[in-house]
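Can anyone check this?
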Amino acid sequence: MEVRQLPLFRDIGWRWLAYAASAIVITMVILASSLKVEFRRDVACEVVSPSMHRIHGEGGWVSDIYVDAGQSVKKGEKLLALRSKFSDSADTSDRATTMLAPKDGVVLFVNARKGQFLQQNDTAIVVEEASREPLFVVMRIPSEQRGFIRSGQQLRIKLDAFPYGRFGTRSATVDSISLTTIGSAAATRMFDDSGIFSGADGDYVAWAKLGERSFRYGGEELGILPGMRGKASVVVGRMTIAEWLFAPLLNVERS
């Protein structure tokens, strides 16, 4: 049957209202079937610097400290000296060890005092290279959230030091993601004493490059520092609005 004209209503105003409502419904159905929404979840993260070097104690008493926090150093310059007891059947003399700066840079932190005993895994001094490479955020990704994370993906970082309700979020770009899970022991070796990897068995590790080292707020320049922790908002799912609305029915059908 050929339709020559649209159905008529007695009231012309109601007829056009019905046409408009039909057009709106059709448009909404098309949009719901084509537009995708992202579902995000927060994961633990910590700011790290690839140009930061942690100088560990080798087991011994601190006999001399040659630098202070904030001091510039050159590669090979003395940082501190350790004295340890060298003991075997033939020799019980003291052994002196001098720790040197691995690169040109600035001393960020000195965690040693003269006469203090340092264990082998203790961080004695932290030096950051003068190159000032971009900061990274290292994230702990649970296995159920790994599937939708891709290199180049944009993230929003909520730093604990700067509550996002007041200071907003910082932008970051995913640089790489581990292809296998990482255990707590391996994470501890990679990231020293980072607390976010406690009990990390079965989780993945991702790195994202921060877009800035500092930001302005209220006319003040606020710096982002290595070691700051927070939450990274990552995408854990994508679906159209129609799929989201009818997800319960689709799950029943698939089961």
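Reply from J.R.: I decoded it. Residues 184-189 have pLDDT under 50 and may be disordered.
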